[in-house]
Amino acid sequence: MKKALLIVDVQNDFCENGNLAVTEANSIIPYINSLIANNNYDEIILSQDYHPNNHKSFASANHKNIGEEIILNGLPQIMWPDHCVQGSFGAEFHPLLNTKSATKIIQKGLNIEVDSYSAFYDNNKEISTGLSDYLKDKNIKVLEISGLALDYCVKYSCLDAVKEGFETFLHFKGTKAVNIKEDDTKDSLYELILNGINIIA
Question: How many angstroms separate the CA atoms of 124 and 72, rounded?
C-alpha cells in the first residue's frame, strides 16, 4: 500500500524568532528529518504558506490588533501578524529541515481574500491546491502528517485528508500547537481522534 508523508509549513516564520513563531517549533525538525531518513515513503510532500503582501488574514491589512477575530468572506478569521509573505525569508523552509527528498511542494494562502490553513483547500473550501489529485494520481492510500501548527494548518490538513479518503496518521512528536487558548492542543487531538485520524505518539 503506497504511503506519503506530508510536512506542513515548517517555515522560518513559524519557527524560532519568526513573525508567527510556534513555541518549541524547532524541536520537531530532527524528528521529521528522521522520518524522511527512514526512506519509508513513496512521496514526501511539503506544504508552504505563501501569502501575498497585505493578505486579508493579516492584522496590518485590516487595521486590527493581532489575535482579534473578524468575519472574512463569511468565516471567522483570526488576525495574524504578517507572515510567510511571498519571496520573504520568513516564507522559506527552515534551513535545518531536509527538503532534498521532497517530491512535491504545495503552496497555499495565495489568494489575498481568503486564508488557507489546510494543505488541500482554502478555508472556504472553494479552491483546491491540487494535493488530493496529486496523491490519488500516485495511488497513495496512506498519508502521514507532521509540521506546524497542530491547532491550525496541521489539524485542518488532517481533517481534509480523511474527507478525501486517505487513511490518515498524525505524528504527535512531529508537531507543535500555537495554543492561543490553553487547551488547544488537547482539543485539537480530541477532534482529530473523533474524526478518524490515527495519532502516532
Answer: 10
Please pick, among 56, 108, 155, 176, the residue that the annotation labels catalytic. Answer: 108
Question: pLDDT (tens digit, 9 = 90+) per residue, 19-67?
Answer: 999 999 999 999 999 999 998 999 999 999 999 999 999 999 999 999 9
pLDDT of residue 192: 98
Q: Is 183 a catalytic residue?
A: no
Task: Give one DSSP letter per residue of 64-79, joined into a string.
Answer: --TT-EEEETTEEEEP
Among 56, 84, 122, 153, the active-site one is: 153
Verify whether residue 2 is a known catalytic residue.
Answer: no
This model's pTM is above 0.85: yes
pLDDT at 127: 94
Known catalytic residue at 108: yes
Would you say 175 and 146 are in contact if contact means Cβ atoms under 8 Å apart? Answer: yes
Of the residues 9, 13, 49, 160, only one is catalytic, namely 9
pLDDT above 90: residue 92: yes
